[in-house]
Amino acid sequence: MKYFLGIGGIGVSALARFYLSQGEKVVGSDSCDSEIIQDLKKEGAVIYLGHDAQNIPVECNELIYTPAAKDDNPEMIEARKRGLEVLSYPQALGRLSQRYKTIAIAGTHGKSTTTAMLGLMMVEAGMDPTIIVGTKIKEFGNSNFRAGNSEYLVIEACEHEGSFLNYHPQIAIVTNVEADHLDYYGDIDNLRKAFLEFVSHIPADGLLVERQGTELLCECKKQTFSLSDEEVSKIREVIGVPGDHNLLNGLAAYRVGTYLGIDNEVMLRVLNSYIGSWRRFDVTDMGSYVLIDDYAHHPTEIRATLLAAKEKYPDKRICCVYQPHQYQRTKFLFSDFIQVFKECVGRDINKIFMLDVYDVVGREGDDDMRKNYGSERLCQEIGSEFCSYIGKGEGLEEIILGYDVVIMMGAGNVYDLSQRLKAKNCPCS
């Protein structure tokens, strides 16, 4: 029996679902309740809210934990005291990747969307893959997991703290490599070294598909993709999600699909029917306006999402409610955030409403960082005519009045504000 510490996380929950699909008993805990936890309970998992040594069943032989867990967590202490095998989520997924022909999708941006697109192509082609992805996919019953019965495993491979270095792919996609997670890597050179190590795990008879210009050296076969490729025109004609960034995601999936022998018409049909996933340009018609939930929290992602919104709604008044994610990321990329918002406001959208920075446990930053790289300062640097600081978002319904499109953006709990707006808008509430 396996115990999952932090079972409500988007990665750990997918792995828990894998073991549930294998008929294993799954027990776990998390600090708070969530939609994911409620869904897991319905699927058969036993879940405790709060962490306690007594939560771990006597018959348990392995504990899998979220990388966010601390060594002084009582369940971590108890597991080691009992001599259980203790693995982080990336370590456990890495072990699983050795049991399959694994296809891993890495990159600073576009991992979840590309994983979903490729996974759906393989499903439609009858290849029956097992899929683990960092978002909820509508076609998987709003789940981050799909159970398959073939030799293929498709996984999202995140570079955070070197997680993807645990994986052993036969095929890998690298969508792009840009500065992020610099609180861990220090600089872009160290980040590139990690990506180089990741692609070195691909065997000589495997395949790397990378965006042109990434230039990662590897011993395996390599293909590149770019917006100048001849396939772009036919993908652009059919793709169901807006923006050049999604065109590139679709092209990367198309490259691997072609390599796997998937029929061209099948791939184009999937790209046409795919309309996005949870918090990836996730559109809800609210009647008087359109609400878009988006996970973007890096300057490049923000630019891509705002451009896509303008492309989809060219004549509409658009605002963005943005929640910066982590003080450390905000500090490292401060000038980039300022530049991208100044560039996009007035051209692509009409106004930014800035929420407080979302604190991530263990990366809260010191007082100096919080003072100099908080939302209020970021808003000041962007300019009051472009950006208004709104703290925790009180009175959001009134703030967004008059806009045709409202983008709720960020990787933190800005999603909770979206849910409140939807709940108040529901005729049954």
Number of strands: 18
Count the domains: 3
**Spatial strand arrangement across the major sheet:** 8-7-9-6-10-11-12
Quote the distance from N terminus to C terminus.
41 Å
Label the overall shape. globular
Helix content: 25-40%
Evaluate the radius of gyration: 21 Å
Kindly report the CATH topology of the largest domain.
UDP-N-acetylmuramoyl-L-alanine:D-glutamate ligase
Strand content: 15-25%
Can you identify the CATH class of the largest domain? Answer: Alpha Beta
- Oligomeric form: single chain
Give an overview in words.
The chain is globular. The protein folds into 3 domains: 2-88, Rossmann fold (3-Layer(aba) Sandwich); 98-273, UDP-N-acetylmuramoyl-L-alanine:D-glutamate ligase (3-Layer(aba) Sandwich); 282-425, Protein-Tyrosine Phosphatase, Chain A. It has helices at 10-21, 35-42, 74-82, 89-97, 111-124, 182-185, 188-200, 232-238, 244-259, 264-273, 299-312, 327-332, 334-344, 367-372, 375-382, 396-399, 414-425; strands at residues 2-5, 26-30, 46-49, 62-65, 85-88, 101-106, 130-137, 143-146, 152-156, 171-174, 207-211, 221-225, 282-285, 290-294, 318-322, 351-355, 387-391, 405-409. Helix content is 38%, strand content 20%. The protein is of the alpha/beta class and 429 residues long. It has a 7-stranded mixed β-sheet with strand order 8-7-9-6-10-11-12, sandwiched between helices. Strands 13-14-18-15-16-17 form a 6-stranded mixed β-sheet, with helices on both faces. Strands 3-2-1-4-5 form a 5-stranded parallel β-sheet, with helices on both faces. A hairpin with a 5-residue loop joins β7 (130-137) and β8. The chain contains 17 helices and 18 strands.
